[in-house]
Amino acid sequence: MSAPHVAALATLLWWSSACPAEDLISRTGPGVALNKRFVSTVQAACSLPSPLVHVTDDGTKEILLLSNAGVLRAIDPDSGEDRWRFTIEAPEGQSPLAMSTPALIGQRLVIAWTFALTGEGPPDPGRWVKVSHHVQVFDLRTGSWDEDYPRVTLSASEPTWDGAGTVTLDSSKQMMRPRVAYLPDGSGLGLAYVSMGVGGGGQPYHGWVFELDLDAWRSGGADAAISGTLLTTADNDCAYDNEELLFAEVCGGGVWTSAGPTETTDAMGNPELIIPTGNGRVHPGRRSYAHGLLRVGPGLNFDAGCDPDACAGFDETDPSVACLESCAHYFVPRLPPSQTFAPENGHCDGETFQECYGTLDADFGSSAPVAVTLPSGRRVLVQAAKDGAVYLIDREHMGTMLDRLPVIQPCGTKDDRCSATWAGQFVTQPLVWINPDSGETMIIVAGFNFDATHPAGVAGIVINDGPAPMLELVWTAPNFGSDAAITSFRRHPGRPALYEVDGTTFVFVVETFPGRLWVIRAADGAIVAIHDLTSNGIRYSLPVFIDDRVFVAGCGGGAALADGRLEAFDLNAVRDGATLTIPGGTPTEHGDHCQPSGIICAAGEYCERQVCGGPGVCLPRPSSCAAAEPVEVCGCDGATYPSRCQANIEGQHVKQEGACP
C-alpha cells in the first residue's frame, strides 16, 4: 500500500476511536444556515434531468425543470410559481420519456427524449417499451420549438468489427439518460452530443453517441444534423443464456451516466470529449470498448491507439496489462500490483477483476470523469467507479493509470446480505476544488452503500502533485468512524455541487431516501447543515444556485418516480455555529434499523422497505389482523407468515407473496 493510502487508513482508524458515539460534530468556524423558501407546485412526474439556471435577454433569472413526462417548466426563483409550461406532444398511444438534462446554449435548449408506449410507465422508466428517440431545439424566447431546427429522429447503422455485418440501432433496447453534452465552435454554433445506454430490454444493446452539428442542422434540415456517430461495441455476437442477464460481458458498453460525457480540451486547446462506457465486452481487437473511458474529438472518429502486438491473444476475462497500458485514447480499470479486490460478500470469490466487474455490474461508466490540470502542468483525469475506488489517469496517454484509491468498500458481507450489489458505490461525477489557502487540488466525490456494515458519504481527496501524482484521502463526511456513516447515504445520492457563501466554499449534496440536503465545508469536511426535504430527493440530480439560494429537485413518489417538485433554500452565512447532531442510531442485526432514516424503529413500528435490506420508512405495526386476507407471505427474515399484516405485526417487511422456499 502506498504511503498516502496508509496515511488515509490511519486517519480513518483515528476517527473511529475519536468520534463520540452520539455522532456529535462540532460546527466551529464558518458555516451556512438553510432557510426553506418554497416548495414549488407538485407535478405528476419527477424530473430526473437536473434543473438549469436560465438568464433571459433582459437579465431575469429563472429555473428550467424538465420532467420525465416531457413537461418543461420555467420557475420563478423567488416565489416558486411557474412562469410558463410547455409539454412535448406524443403520437397517439405513446408518451414522452425525458431523462436527459438538456444543453442550454444561450437562448436555445437542446432537448433529447424518447417516445414510449403509453401505459408502460412507472415505477421503472428503464422498463418502458421504447419506440423512438428524438432531439429538437427549443426557443426560450418564444416558448416553443425553434422552427430553424426540425425534429431529428435518431437512427444509425455501423459495420461490425470484422466488416462481416452491421450493428443497427434498436430503439427498444436503448435509453437516453446522459446529459446532452456541448462543444462550442469558434466559427459557428457548435456541436451537441446525445448518448444512449441500456434501456431495460436485455441484450443486444450497445453504447451509442450522436453528434449534431447545429449549423448544418439549421441550414440543411434534419437530414444534415447528424455529423458523427460512435458505436462502443462493434459486435453482433451478443449471445447470452438468460433474459435477465443484463450484466454479461457481451456487447453492451452503454453510455448511461446521468452526468454525460465530459467536455474538455487537448493540450493544444482543441475541444474533445471523454466518454464513459458501461458494462460489456472489452476487446480492442474487436472494437469493443466497454468498461472504460474513450477520448474523441469532433466527428466522433475513435481510435483506441492500442499496440496490436501487445494486444495479440487478448484475454477478455483477464486482460493483458501491457495491452491496456499501450492504449493512447482508451482507459480500462485494473488493480495496481499492491492492491487486491475481494468483496466481503463473496460474490467474486475465484474471479478475476474483470470477471468481478461483470458479476457485480460494476461498470466503469457509472460516473463521468473530471479533467484536471495540476499546478505542475500535468493533465490528469479523475474517475469514481462503482467498485468504490477513485482512479487517477494520465490525460495525455490514457492507458497510464497513475493511482487507484479505495474509498468505500463494496456492498455487503456474508452476514449482511446486500440487497443491491449491482448498485455499486459511486454513480456520480467528482468535483474539483483548489484550496485557496494551501493551493492543493482537491477532488470531492459523493458515494453510498446499500448495506448496514460499511460507511459511506462524501469524501475529500487531495491530489499530491509530484513526479508520480497520487491520491490522498483527507476527510469524509460523515466521519467514516461514526455510526452516522453507516446509517446515512444508503441509496444513490444526488451529484455534489460547490458554492461559496461569504468567502467560504461549501459542498451541497442531496441524500435520497430520506431526502436531506447536506452542506459540508470543502476545506475540512465539517458538516455545517443538514435539512430535511419534503421529498425523497432525486439520485444523480445536481443542485443549482441563484444569488445565495440553492435549488434542488425532489421526488415524492418513491419507486414510482411521481410527485416531482423543486425546493429552494436561502443561504445565510454563520460565523461560528453550534454543535450539530447528525440523526443516527447504532445498527445491531441487519434489518433492525431503518437505513435511510438513520434510526432504529420504535418498538411499536416496523420498517416498510422497497426491497429486503434496502431503504425504508418506520410505520406503525398493525394492532390487529382480524380483517386481513389470509394469503401466506415470506418475510425478510426468511420466515413464512399467514398474512402480510401478521408479518408487519412481527416487525417484518414482506419479501414476496407465498411461503418462503
Set out the fold topology.
Elements: H1 3-18, E1 24-26, E2 31-39, E3 43-45, E4 52-55, E5 61-66, E6 71-75, E7 82-87, E8 94-97, E9 103-105, E10 108-117, E11 130-139, E12 144-145, E13 152-153, E14 157-159, E15 166-168, E16 174-175, E17 181-183, E18 191-198, E19 208-213, H2 214-220, E20 226-231, E21 262-265, E22 271-277, E23 282-283, E24 288-289, E25 292-296, H3 321-326, E26 330-331, H4 353-360, E27 370-373, E28 379-384, E29 389-394, E30 401-406, E31 431-434, E32 441-446, E33 458-464, E34 470-477, H5 484-487, E35 497-501, E36 504-511, E37 516-521, E38 527-532, E39 544-545, E40 549-555, E41 562-574, E42 579-581, E43 593-594, E44 599-600, E45 605-609, E46 616-620, E47 633-635, E48 640-641, H6 644-649, E49 654-657
Antiparallel strand pairs: 1-42, 2-41, 3-41, 4-5, 5-6, 6-7, 8-10, 9-10, 10-11, 11-12, 11-13, 14-15, 16-18, 17-18, 18-19, 19-20, 21-22, 22-25, 23-24, 25-26, 27-28, 28-29, 29-30, 31-32, 32-33, 33-34, 35-36, 36-37, 37-38, 39-40, 40-41, 43-44, 45-46, 47-48, 47-49
